[in-house]
Structure formats: structure tokens, C-alpha cells
Amino acid sequence: MTHSDKHVRSGTTYANAANLLIDVGGTAFAYRDLGPRSGVPLILLNHWGAVLDNFDPRIVDGLAGRHRVIATDYRGIGASGGTAPVTIDEMARDAIALIHALGFETVDLLGFSLGGFVAQDMVLKAPGLVRKLLLTGTGPAGGQGIDKVGAVSWPLIIKGLLTRRDPKYYLFFTSTANGRQAAKAFLDRLKERKRNRDKDPTPVAFLRQLKAIKAWGRQAPQDLGNIRIPVLIANGDNDIMVPTVNSTDMARRIPDAQLVIYEDAGHGGIFQNQADFVSKALSFLNE
After folding, report:
1. How far apart are CA 212 and CA 86, in angstroms?
2. DSSP string for 252-269
3. CA 34 – CA 152 distance, rounded (Å)
4. Is 2 exposed, middle or buried (0-12, 13-18, 19+ CB in 10 A)?
5. Sorting pLDDT into bands at 50, 70 and 90, what band is 10?
6. What is the CATH number for 188?
7. DSSP code at position 19
8. Which tens digit of pLDDT belongs to each residue from 35-93?
């Protein structure tokens, strides 16, 4: 029986994976852990205001068919203890400490949006820790328009309240028929887990994370030429949150990075094209 068969037969999918806690320097960090026990684990780092239930279950399950996948909550978010950091630097230190607490010497990293900021910082801070890096819907320190995320988001967050829709419907997807359909499908997938859902982020944590995002947008650029590991970069061609030009910029600055840009897709391009993204991500991880 192969690992992937075992994973499927054991019936663990992201929708029913256990909520776990680990003590990291006196703070409890929340995570979920699924997939085969062998090989290099893949750590997932998510977007602004995201908790464990904001990872796309299709992407997690698709990757966990072949790889051990660990989805995490930042400090002060969801079921994790402590206070949400106001810098990417602290989030990166937390994630490195979490990986060590879990007993891993080498990991693969997938960061989406804010998670991609944290992932880049981790790779530069801890050479040798990360084997392969996936940067999705994200951008570099000092990247174009990143300090404007709040200004772009608030009107659409309010529009979400007024139309009784999750703001991600407007923020993550294009307003074409294709984008609207993808938005609805993605938001439906996020509701598949019925029991033991994570705690929603507090307004305070949400605002503290926004501070960290703005500071990242205003930070001096990092030397991405120092990222000497395989990198896959993916985004939609019409990202209004972290403008797509940032993905192109990272691909130019990181040696031998692979770039995937999805057409008629926004910030949530990997969610809109989840089957294609999973297949590309698996090929990249197995190369």
C-alpha cells in the first residue's frame, strides 16, 4: 500500500483533520497535519486575517496525497495563543521556531499573500531550512502597491458587508463571469468543514496584521538573489491586492525561479485554478 493510498483510506481530509497545538517558547501554536509521514514536510502560511479554515481544502488535499502537509496559524490568530505580531520579521521568527518545535530540519514552504512575505523572510533568515519555496499571490519587501493593501481592501470589505458576501468574493477574484463563478466555488469549499472549526480572527489581530503588511510594503528591498533554492511563483494576471507586477519582479530577481500567471484571475488565482496549481506544485516538489 502506498502512502497516498494510506492517506486516502485513513479518511483524513483537510475537512476533518484534527486541530493540534504545540508549545513554542511558551506560546501555543495551532496547526493541522495530514498526508504521508515520510519525506520533506510542506508548511503552509496563509493570508491576512486567515485562520486554519481559510486554506483551500482542494489544494491541501491535493498536496497531502503525496506530501505531509502542515497548515499553521500565526501567533494571535485563530486558536494560536499570544498577540499577533506587527512585523513580518516576528512572524518569520515564529514560523522558524514552530518548525524546530515540530522537530523538522528541512521543510518545503508554501506562502500565500502575507504568507509569501513571511516565507521569503524565513528563507533569507534561515539558510538550509527550506528545500523548495512556493510563493503565491505575493510580493517582495518594498513591492509595488503592497503598502496600499488596506486602502484597496476597505471599500471592498464594506461592499461585502453591504451585499452580505465574504469580502474575498471581491478581493480575490476578477469581476468577470469566470471570476464570480470561481469565487462562489472557493467560498463554498471553505465551508465544507462542519465541526471543530478554527476561531475567527479578532478585529485587533486583523489590524495588527495589516500594520505588518504596510511595513513590509515600505521596507527596503531584500536581496532576493540570495534565495538559492528552487522557487515556484504563481498568481493571477489581475491581482488588485498584491499587484501582479510583484510576481514578475520576484521571478526576475530570484535565480531560476519558475513563474505561472493565470489568465482572467486575481489574487486568488491559485484557488480559481486549484487543480492546475496542485499538479504544477506536485511536479515542482517532485522535480
Report:
1. 4
2. HHSTT-EEEEETT--TTH
3. 35
4. exposed
5. low
6. 3.40.50.1820
7. P
8. 999 999 999 999 999 999 999 999 999 999 999 999 999 999 999 999 999 999 999 99
- Angstrom CA distances, 80 to 31, 53, 89, 113, 116, stand at 8, 13, 18, 20, 20
- Parent domain of 166: 3-286
| Nearest one of 231, 199, 160 to 51, comparing CA atoms | 199
Task: Grade residue 6 by pLDDT with cuts at 50, 70 and 90.
Answer: very low
Whether the Cβ atoms of residue 252 and residue 224 lie closer than 8 Å to each other: no
Which amino acid, one-letter code, is at 123?
Answer: V
Query: How many domains are there within the chain?
Result: 1
Give 163's contacts (C-beta < 8 A, 6+ positions apart): none
Residues in Cβ contact with 110 at an 8 Å cutoff, skipping those fewer than 6 apart? 42, 43, 44, 45, 63, 119, 134, 136, 281
- Spatial contact of 270 and 171, defined as CB atoms under 8 Å apart: no
Helix-, strand-, coil-residue percentages of the chain, each rounded to 5: 45, 15, 40
Neighbouring residues of 102: CB distance < 8 A, sequence distance ≥ 6 = 22, 41, 70
pTM above 0.85, yes or no: yes
Per-residue pLDDT for 276 more than 50? yes
**In angstroms, rounded to a whole number, what is the distance separating the alpha carbons of residues 22 and 20?**
7
Q: Give the integer Cα–Cα distance in Å for 55 and 269.
A: 14
CA–CA dist 85, 215 (Å, integer)? 12
The whole-angstrom distance between residue 216's C-alpha and the CA centroid of its chain comes to: 16
In the three-class reduction of DSSP (H, G, I as helix; E, B as strand; rest coil), residue 69 is classed as strand
